[in-house]
Amino acid sequence: MSKRKVQEANGIPPKQDTMGDDSGSEDDIDMIDVDFEWFAPAQHDFHGLKALLRQLLDADNDLLDLSGLADLILSQPQLGSTVKCDGEDSDPYAFLTILNLTANATNPAVRSLISYLSSRTKTNTSLAQLSDLLSNPDAQIGLILTERLINMPTEIVPPLYTMLMDELSTAGNSFTHYLILSKTYMEVVSELETADRPKKKVRQGASGGEEVFYFHAEDEVLQRHAACAGGWDYEKVSEGGADSKRAFQEEGIQARGHGILIEGARFEGAVKAVGEYLGAAS
User: Fewer Cβ close by (within 10 Å): the C or N end of the chain?
Assistant: First the structure.
């Protein structure tokens, strides 16, 4: 049974009837009505969740046990949600869940993930607090994993977070910290054409630093409530990887891992801010 059902127009204006009208406009666009439904994670979601985890973890996905993480997500259907368009048995287009890193520390998939995060964050001074917490057995860290297909409307995000808050309250879960695992990207000027020129250059922001973009719009809001936040380079980035993602623009993109650590007392306020910023589907 679905948790909630919402109809989204996806911001696309209705199609104009141009039959018999010689003044047909190039601006005529079909309206696409989509019914989004929120479901608890179920066993038939295994492959869909694994695919979304692979997308979330990007270049480093094969360093981690995605099957083990998907199994752990499915073992706690009372926490987290999937978003679907074609009924309960269809593949998830988005998901959000939370894993208790402390309680699951002996799980091989979680142990591998903690080790990965520790190695990636220890050299970033802005993530020093996170690095310390990951090695503290007394810390109660809730790891939030969330990903969606690239064309999903951001309005689906607030309900995912608010439902998680309700589920955590019902389950009596209490975390000292919440860690959102995400990713960002930078635009990289392609220099494929001239082999003897310097290596690719990261586009600079207005302030002269690296200009960072968010794959998940909500991360910009969540970061304002963070105890610490920062990124790391993927271990398995290949040469030319950014150019392979260049497609129809002059710049390629260089993806990076990103972590946002929020203290437990501030998480509810962060979720509320996400809803105000993105607007909830209704």
Answer: N
